[in-house]
Design brief:
With 438 residues, the protein is mainly alpha-helical. The protein is built from 14 helices and no strands.
Length: 438
């Protein structure tokens, strides 16, 4: 494993990111429950309130919780950006964000304005603290690393997505305000492409070469790719706002900009796949399966979205499924299965004295999160995702099977992460006892 360019001495408390990582699978379980309760009608209408509950359970609950946890770990270690009192700050954010997301999900399911209002206050407060904290850290350190530059753009994108989300959610919370659905498309692209995808790209610059023992991403990609994506998002935003205000026909310009954005994403996908296929570590790695499938599904998602533009066909449900279930979920599971055992292994070595390490064998990363667990998660994921795709074209029985499989996937991930944390806490207890006896 390549630890070059890592400032591990700045690593935060292990529970700073872990509290987010252990909570994220719970929202995957909640997503499966939403599928089970809502029924197949959820796949037919993007404005269905159950569809909105499911989308935000995945986007905010599973995906963003994982990314936020990763930010608290990656900024000091990879980008060298010091976050003052990171543990207490992350805990405050966590305490407002988790109940806020739960209230938002319940608000969509029950369609109750008071729940929308409470969720809006809690989510905006928590995410504002997070965005200000991270932006301040990035700007103060002014790191020249490509990962830091990309994460900076992703945070700005997240800020824009949150502002648009606040405007949209205000329409549900205060009906007199009016539901401004014309901003939904902008909210989606800033949240999905700007926040999630640019974050993934920035993290990939460090995580994929480190854990998969690949070559570095080409310099021109690390310098220009996320900046180009960000510029295309700004241009798309300007065009959409102009269309809303002046009622102009800008469809051809939107298609050109979206096509350029698609090319940028394809460059990332193909480069990543090439690096992985030419990796120096040739032994089988189940986390690699997650990464490969996620990049492939991202490419299909882009093709699906382009098809909907060129053919004037509504493929939004399919595109959303490919992005969230096909790309985001497996990539996060694959990265968590590597990041979590590494964090635990590192902190055990950091906290254990030399005498303790001689008398007690600290577990290897493969013992903390075994390859068998990763393979099992991958098989259950493939079954979940495949059955979800089939459910779009076949009977309700397959849909309910998919719902149960998503619940199973979230449960297994939660149990495996919990067991990894148990290994850590058990060893820390042994270290404390050993210190007291000495």
């Amino acid at each position: 494993m390549n630890h070059a360019n890592l400032t591990l001495e700045q690593a935060p408390s292990i529970f700073t990111p872990l509290r987010y990582f252990i909570t994220a699978p719970l929202f995957l379980i909640i997503s499966g429950v939403i599928l089970l309760v809502s029924g197949p009608d959820l796949l037919e209408n993007r404005w269905n309130l159950y569809t909105l509950a499911l989308t935000h359970s995945l986007a905010l609950g599973f995906i963003s919780m994982s990314i936020i946890g990763a930010f608290f770990q990656i900024l000091p270690v990879v980008a060298g950006c010091h976050i003052p009192q990171s543990n207490s700050t992350s805990f405050i954010i966590y305490c407002f964000l988790v109940p806020g997301i739960v209230l938002l999900i319940l608000g969509f399911i029950l369609n109750t304005p008071i729940l929308y209002k409470l969720s809006l206050y809690m989510i905006v407060l928590s995410l504002s603290i997070f965005i200000v904290t991270v932006l301040k850290s990035l700007l103060q350190n002014n790191s020249e690393l490509a990962s830091a530059k990309s994460l900076n753009l992703s945070i700005i994108s997240f800020l824009i997505a949150v502002i648009l989300a606040t405007i949209l959610l205000a329409g549900y919370a205060w009906p007199d305000f009016g539901l401004l659905r014309q901003y939904t498309h902008l909210h989606i692209i800033w949240a999905a492409v700007g926040w999630i995808l640019i974050s993934v790209i920035g993290v990939s610059y460090q995580v994929i070469p480190m854990f998969q023992i690949t070559s570095e991403y080409p310099a021109f990609i690390k310098i220009f790719l996320t900046r180009l994506i960000f510029i295309f998002l700004i241009a798309l935003t300007f065009i959409n706002l102009l269309n809303n205000s002046a009622s102009l026909d800008i469809s051809s310009i939107e298609i050109v900009l979206t096509s350029l954005l698609a090319v940028s994403i394809f460059v990332f996908v193909f480069t990543s796949i090439k690096l992985v296929l030419q990796r120096k570590k040739r032994s089988p790695d189940s986390s690699l399966w997650f990464i490969n499938i996620s990049f492939f599904m991202l490419a299909l998602c882009v093709i699906s979205h382009l098809s909907s533009l060129y053919l004037s066909t509504d493929l939004s449900i399919l595109s959303g499924m490919l992005f969230f279930s096909g790309f985001s979920i497996p990539l996060i599971i694959g990265m968590l299965s590597k990041i979590i055992p590494f964090l635990i292994w590192y902190h055990l070595h950091k906290n254990a004295g030399k005498s303790f390490r001689k008398s007690h064998k600290i577990p290897l990363m493969t013992e903390i999160f075994s390859p068998f667990k990763s393979r099992l998660l991958f098989y259950v994921y493939i079954a979940s995702f495949t059955s979800s795709l089939i459910a779009m074209f076949t009977t309700a029985y397959v849909f309910y099977l998919a719902s149960i499989l998503w619940i199973l996937l979230g449960t297994l991930l939660f149990l495996f992460i919990s067991h990894s944390i148990h290994i850590y806490t058990s060893f820390i207890c042994n270290i404390s006892k050993s210190t007291e006896m000495a």
